[in-house]
Amino acid sequence: MEYLQFVGTQYLVTMGWAIVGAVSMGIGLGIALKVFTWMTPGIDEMEELKKGNIGVAIVLAAVVLAMALVVAVTVLPECSN
Q1: Does residue 5 form part of some domain?
Q2: Residue 50: inside a domain, yes or no?
Q3: Which of 2, 60, 61, 66 is deepest in the core (most CB within 10 A)?
Q4: Whole-prediction pTM value?
């Protein structure tokens, strides 16, 4: 019985971190893309993506991956075993 309670608790903690990570990623990605767009005033990234500009797609993918790494490191619970 104690094992089932432990597994259930761990499941809830994991789901909680997943929700925190998803919300953090959504907010952080929105902010990061706005800041990136603000830093590149002469380029409309979304219009360039519609035209099929691979260079802009690679740069935006790098921004998304960098933001994902930042959020993952921030949200990751420390292992204190």
Answers
A1: no
A2: yes
A3: 60
A4: 0.65
